[in-house]
């Protein structure tokens, strides 16, 4: 596409007006210059859609305004991290570790006596109260509590943990909102 000399001249004449408008939106000279540059790039790329004889200034101001609000929407999802401290705190745990931990847990759970496993699953995983679990198992509440306690202790032994305190990822992951172990079962395992 060939651009007429008058359109080029009109486009160049609008730069000071675009800078003033951009500066009023941004409040920062460098950011305003970047916005004007973005506007001119978009205008040049879409020059075929502009009809000569219409209001070039209004067309350019619309492009500038749209570019400004688009950049603001993108920035809402960004975090300024000039010194790199936020990036240093991010931790992504290897996904295979969770799978392997779950597999180890399943094997350990299968390795405890059936009565203890049943009590632990009723209390920890299914969310029943001790009274409800006692009714389901047909035994006294104290018996259920004892079975759960012994099941927790045996699981910790089988998983080589100190009284259930090692369940879940490292404390570094917990600092970025990663839960150590999810579900009620984890809470009951730690007790």
TrEMBL record:
InterPro entries assigned: RNA_pol_sigma-70-like, RNA_pol_sigma-70_dom, RNA_pol_sigma70_ECF_CS, RNA_pol_sigma70_r2, RNA_pol_sigma70_r4_t2, RNA_pol_sigma_r2, RNA_pol_sigma_r3/r4-like, WH-like_DNA-bd_sf
Chain ranges of the RNA polymerase sigma factor 70 region 4 type domain: 103-155
Keyword Transcription regulation included in the entry's annotation: yes
Residue ranges constituting the RNA polymerase sigma-70 region domain according to the UniProt record: 16-76
GO biological process, any: DNA-templated transcription initiation
NCBIfam families attached to this UniProt entry: PRK12547.1 (NF009199), sigma70-ECF (TIGR02937)
Similarity remark: Belongs to the sigma-70 factor family. ECF subfamily.
Name the UniProt record assigns to this protein: RNA polymerase sigma factor
Organism per entry: Kaustia mangrovi
